[in-house]
From TrEMBL:
<dbReference type="Pfam" id="PF17723">
    <property type="entry name" value="RHH_8"/>
</dbReference>
<dbReference type="GO" id="GO:0006355">
    <property type="term" value="P:regulation of DNA-templated transcription"/>
</dbReference>
<dbReference type="InterPro" id="IPR041088">
    <property type="entry name" value="RHH_8"/>
</dbReference>
<dbReference type="InterPro" id="IPR013321">
    <property type="entry name" value="Arc_rbn_hlx_hlx"/>
</dbReference>
<dbReference type="InterPro" id="IPR010985">
    <property type="entry name" value="Ribbon_hlx_hlx"/>
</dbReference>
<protein>
    <recommendedName>
        <fullName>CopG family transcriptional regulator</fullName>
    </recommendedName>
</protein>
């Protein structure tokens, strides 16, 4: 029965791995906080620390997002949107803080015809061929 189940849209990851180098003393201090039960593990500590810093700078971040006219969160660009942009002669200028993704059925030719520029602060997901076609337009 499981062979009859088809995923309609692949699940997008909700996070991206980041590697951080820490000094031995800082790492030991984190391990001590974990051992004493303040955090579940090292990753939990680091995620909490990052969120706390972002919360402290929230107003400055809001102003910067507004000033730069960034779309905040998840932006998924479909083939239909790109065809409409191409057909109207108004290429898209994509600016995202978060995750920008381009649908898997978008061809490199359509992407080049419909996208003037892409600036993503976060993560950008597209096929390798589309990324290669847009390489000179990705900031």
């Amino acid at each position: 029965m499981a062979e009859n189940v088809h995923e309609l849209r692949p699940k997008m990851p909700d996070s991206e791995k980041v590697t951080v180098n820490l000094g031995f003393v800082d790492l030991g201090r984190i391990d001590l906080m974990v051992r004493d039960g303040f955090y579940a593990n090292r990753a939990d500590f680091i995620r909490t620390a990052v969120r706390n810093q972002l919360d402290r700078q929230d107003e400055a971040l809001r102003q910067s997002v507004a000033r730069r006219q960034l779309s905040l969160g998840l932006t998924h660009i479909t083939r239909a949107e790109l065809e409409a942009a191409r057909d109207s002669g108004t290429p898209l200028r994509i600016q995202v803080l978060g995750l920008a993704s381009i649908a898997d059925d978008v061809t490199p030719e359509l992407a080049r015809a419909a996208i003037a520029s892409i600036h993503v602060l976060g993560a950008f997901h597209a096929s390798a061929a589309v990324k290669a076609a847009l390489a000179d337009r990705i900031a």
